[in-house]
Amino acid sequence: MANLTADKHTRIIKQKAHEMGFSFCGISKARYLEEEANKLENWLKRGYQGKMSYLENHFDKRLDPTKLVPGAKSVISLVYNYYPKEDLANENTYKIAKYAYGKDYHFVIKDKLKGFLEDLRENIGEISGRVFVDSAPVMERQWATQSGVGWIGKNSLLLNRSMGSFFFLAELILDLELTYDGPAQDYCGTCTACMDACPTDAIPEPYVVDGSKCISYLTIELKDNIPSEFKGQMQDWIFGCDICQDVCPWNRFSKPHSEPQFEPHHDLKEMTKSDWEEMTEEVFRKVFKKSAVKRTKFNGLQRNIKFNSQKS
């Protein structure tokens, strides 16, 4: 009987995920991720987190979902496509990562997840749970791998055979027994395209990213001056970087999203290098009003533009 109930609840969840526009929904049993503990510890010991000291906090919470949701039984991993209809990165302008073209994904997806959880409570009954979108110590890529959504590529991003990697991950952690999916297989094979293409050598070995050298870290997370050793290596990226995704063979399967909130501000499409260089704080506030680019603030974006314009 318990299995039949779990099957029924699982069907409701997967159907609802589909209705809400999520491309994939995988479910894994909530447990302590023992096999990840050593990897995480070694990565931190090597200093690959750079100045992102928050990654050193909540070590146990990262590995144990029951510390985030007492009595947690299931981790639901969801995929939401953000691949744009048009790639705005070209040699005539400065580049921002595709995920930041439209409205900040934290708000867009969190709203969907809250509705999702309310819906489940209406259909299933009282459920204790929490929703997560890249905002808490959840090892989202590891959970997505456990639930068969995809595998972690050599660039440390989650890859999916039918849609590549231009998508957001989100989780629901619930105290609900469900039917669990099996783990995904790794399909990277002998390919090293992402490692070879990284201009700052931020992928020193397969499946390990030195965060302190990653262009995304340097342009967003790092609040100090960008170290001079990276001059001439940033390839005009001023907020995030898509190089290791753009070269990944699996991204030939990417298809444009259908989320109106991810459409870029019309001014963004027309921006030239001189537009970026001459941008005022007023324009910054208008174009990036609800965008993830606000994270770097106007001064941070100016720093990144200036650093890119000094080629040596």
TrEMBL record:
> Is this entry keyworded Metal-binding?
yes
Question: What pathway or pathways are given for this protein in its record?
Answer: tRNA modification; tRNA-queuosine biosynthesis
Please list the residue ranges annotated as the 4Fe-4S ferredoxin-type domain: 176-208
Pfam families the UniProt entry points to: Fer4_16, QueG_DUF1730
Binding of [4Fe-4S] cluster 2 occurs at 198, 214, 241, 244
InterPro entries hit by this protein: 4Fe4S_Fe-S-bd, 4Fe4S_Fe_S_CS, QueG, QueG_DUF1730
Catalytic reaction(s) noted: epoxyqueuosine(34) in tRNA + AH2 = queuosine(34) in tRNA + A + H2O
Q: How is the cofactor bound?
A: Binds 2 [4Fe-4S] clusters per monomer.
| BP term (GO), one | tRNA queuosine(34) biosynthetic process
Instruction: Please list the residues that make up the active site.
Output: 134
Q: Which SUPFAM superfamilies match?
A: alpha-helical ferredoxin
Protein's cellular compartments:
Cytoplasm
Q: Look up the record and report any one GO term of the cellular component aspect.
A: cytoplasm
**Entry keyword set:** 4Fe-4S, Cobalamin, Cobalt, Cytoplasm, Iron, Iron-sulfur, Metal-binding, Oxidoreductase, Queuosine biosynthesis, tRNA processing
Cofactor(s) needed by this chain: [4Fe-4S] cluster; cob(II)alamin
Q: Which family does it belong to?
A: Belongs to the QueG family.
Q: What's its job?
A: Catalyzes the conversion of epoxyqueuosine (oQ) to queuosine (Q), which is a hypermodified base found in the wobble positions of tRNA(Asp), tRNA(Asn), tRNA(His) and tRNA(Tyr).
Subunit info? Monomer.
Q: Could you tell me what this protein is called? A: Epoxyqueuosine reductase
Source organism per UniProt:
Fulvivirga lutea
Supply the source organism's classification: Bacteria, Pseudomonadati, Bacteroidota, Cytophagia, Cytophagales
